[in-house]
Here is the input.
Amino acid sequence: MRSLVLGAVLAALIPLSAQAQEAGDAAAGEKAFAPCKACHNFQKNGVGPDLKGVVGRKAGTYEGYNYSAALKNSGITWDEANLHEWLKNPKAKVPGTKMIFQGYPDDKKINDVIAYLKTQS
Here is the structure.
């Protein structure tokens, strides 16, 4: 009986451990965001749209930026899952996007960038 309880407790903790590993580090994300600064900031549109408050925003809707038709018509809302796919490979997520960034191959770096973006609301 004791081993059944211990097994159940461990089984419950394993998903929590995986979630903790998936959670990003905002400080590391700020550093990983460095290449993005060539086009994006959190105060105004530049080569790319202003990213202040991007988490939770509908794609292609920030006022004053000229988005591609592909992004405007994507129907995407920038939640963590969509941001992860986008940051992994923007052109695969939204074929026809204007974004030239190739994507981050490292899932940890992506999670860190998302954590950083969440601090910029």
